[in-house]
TrEMBL record:
It comes from the Bacteria. This is Uncharacterized protein.
Amino acid sequence: MDQILGQVLRNAVWERLDMLADLANRADAASLVSVARSELPRLTEGWRAMLKAHEPDERGDCPTCSTRWHRCKAPCSVWQVAHEHLVAGGLAPQQDLRKRGRRAARVAEQVASTGRHALVTPRQAVAGAP
């Protein structure tokens, strides 16, 4: 049951991001201003909440990414992605599909053939089973 609810939650987030990206690419100027005024504060608060959860502790470890057996030193991957997208922006180098490896290429092919938001169990997604 938790897997299904988790997948529904993830699908809703992906769909929202797709809708915003589509608006950014296709909307007229007036619509873009309206969307920016309503969505930018929400997106900013979302980033802040996520980054707050990944703020390093007194030892310099990320409390969210660390486990009892494995400490994750800051900056964790969440902070690295935040920096790449919010600070480096278009200056950050983008990997093309050829350089990401066979695993990433298979996942990209699966997304293209089944749709990014298809309800699949994690095992099916990893194994590529129908």
